[in-house]
Amino acid sequence: MAIFREKDIFERRNAANEAKKALLERYKSRPGPDDPSVRERMAQRQAILEAREKRAVEKEKLKQERLAREAAERAAREAAEAEARREAEERARVEATAREAEENARIARLLAEEAERKAKRDARYAARKARAGRH
Predict the structure, then answer these.
(1) Which residue intervals make up region (Disordered) (predicted)?
(2) How far apart are the C-alpha atoms of 33 and 41, rounded to whole Å?
(3) Which residues of 58-96 are buried (b: 16+ CB within 10 A; e: fewer)?
(4) Sign of the four-CA dihedral 93, 94, 97, 103
């Protein structure tokens, strides 16, 4: 059976120092900002950013056009609704006037019939009085 051997402080310190050296070497071996591959990557990133911005501008332009079109449609629809409402109110007013005139004519006819009945009744009464006065 193998005995587990714990690392002592010196081995851990040496391992940490070697890891730090490896990181430093990796950092130093990185290409500088004037390296052609770095410049190419930066150019690609810049092209991507510009394309993204162009798409954003185009998207905003399309959004503004859509909003303007919707506003125009809404205004046209509201104008049509207002016109329809005005026409309905006008029709209602004309119908109310016609009903009122019809009601006034009916009332006038009833009053005329009543006056005619009263005149006939008064004529009968006067005739009866005239007959009674002859005796």
Answers:
(1) 78-97
(2) 10
(3) eeeeeeeeeeeeeeeeeeeeeeeeeeeeeeeeeeeeeee
(4) negative
How far apart, in whole angstroms, are the C-alpha atoms of residue 62 and residue 55? 10
Whether pTM exceeds 0.85? no
Which of these, 91, 68, 67, 71, lies nearest to 79 by C-alpha position? 71
**pLDDT tens, residue order, the chain (135 aa):** 556 677 788 888 999 999 999 999 988 888 777 888 889 999 999 999 999 999 999 999 999 999 999 999 999 999 999 999 999 999 999 999 999 999 999 999 999 999 999 999 999 999 998 888 765
Position 49: which residue type?
A: L
